[in-house]
Write a structure and sequence with these properties.
The chain has twelve helices and seven strands. With 314 residues, it is an alpha/beta fold. It has one domain: Aspartate Aminotransferase, domain 2 (3-Layer(aba) Sandwich), CATH 3.40.640. 40% of the residues are buried. α2 packs antiparallel against α11, α3 runs parallel beside α11 and α4 packs across α10. It binds pyridoxal-5'-phosphate.
């Protein structure tokens, strides 16, 4: 039998990280020693209380049913975390949505929002999921170059008017991957004004919110007007070393979250309840765990940069 894939499958390749994992496996089988700088899957442990909660909850046979959506406890922990860290008030019933990793939300939001003729403004260079989501939605990607002279922030004033008119969504990511800079409150203010002027939704990917060295990153949602135009996605993958648990959340504009929720209710039946319980404990952690994590990353960063400098690399 001849199997013809749908046309939309031609718009994207296998994810680069899956491809790199296969290459790595082949090299390791040849006895080659590698340092893996591909996918950012933390090699550090989650907090002990998270491990304990997950083990206890997973031993309870009553926790194996469909979750369908985020639990009240998890949503409450998210709203408390935002209030504690960013002084942002969120309604835990209407302004928070549980995701199966932020990848889930990043790829599905363009599908819930965009028509083929719509443009999506994405950072260039940017994280791979943005392009995948735009391709799956059949929309058009408009790269916003991140240049040194503009502090690696997109120059909103350089986006042509005809693109602004066709743009439905803008994706931002600070602290960024692969360019690890943070955005100021002023930049987010300008982005919100721009979004309101051109009727563009903002999706801020905040996956690295807790991985900073000097300046604590600004939450997009802490800026006036953010909830009118957009949502922020955050994840437990990097902050709490829980990447394999696939748990994250989106917060902010109620209407956008409802759209995403409707799409997701047809795709998945929620995150395994023991993982939601473990994630609740993680968000309720005292901040020492996150501080210790940052100290380890700082040491590694300094070792890497020191090594580069010894090689004569700036
Ligand atoms: C910028 C950025 N956003 C999102 C993700 C995906 O994270 P999650 O595990 O929450 O799907 C990654 C993963 O590396 C990332 O680098």
């Amino acid at each position: 039998m001849l199997i013809h894939s749908a046309r939309r499958m031609k718009a994207f390749q296998e994810n680069i990280f899956t491809e790199l994992a296969d290459i790595k496996k082949a090299k390791v089988a040849q006895g080659i020693e590698l340092i893996d700088l591909s996918i950012g899957s933390p090699d550090l442990a989650p907090p002990p209380s998270v491990l304990q909660t997950l083990a206890e909850e997973a031993a309870n046979p009553n926790k194996f049913g469909y979750a369908l959506k985020g639990t009240e406890d998890f949503h409450r922990a998210i709203t408390n975390y935002y209030m504690r860290n960013y002084q942002v008030e969120l309604d835990c019933d209407n302004e928070v949505l549980t995701l199966m990793g932020s990848q889930d939300g990043l790829v599905h939001l363009p599908m819930a929002l965009c028509e083929p003729e719509d443009y999506v403004l994405v950072p260039d260079p940017g994280y791979t999921a943005y392009a995948a989501g735009v391709s799956m939605a059949g929309a058009t990607m408009y790269p916003m170059p991140l240049k040194k002279e503009s502090g690696y922030l997109p120059s909103l004033e350089d986006i042509p008017l005809e693109v602004c008119e066709k743009a439905k969504l803008m994706i931002l990511n600070y602290p960024g991957n692969p360019i690890p800079v943070v955005a100021s409150e002023g930049f987010f203010k300008a982005a919100i004004t721009f979004a309101k002027r051109h009727n563009i939704v903002i999706l801020h990917d905040f996956a690295y919110s807790e991985l900073y060295y000097d300046r604590k990153p600004v939450s997009f949602l802490s800026v006036d007007g953010a909830k009118d135009v957009g949502i922020e996605m955050n994840s437990l993958s990097k902050s709490f070393n829980m990447a394999g648990c696939r748990i994250a959340y989106a917060a902010g504009n109620h209407e956008l979250l409802q759209l995403l929720k409707r799409l997701k209710s047809n795709l998945d039946y929620g995150v395994f309840l023991p993982i939601q319980a473990a994630a609740t404990v993680a968000l309720d952690q005292p901040s020492e765990f996150l501080e210790k994590n940052r100290v380890i990353y700082r040491k590694r960063r300094d070792t890497l940069i020191g090594g580069f400098q010894q090689l004569g690399w700036k």
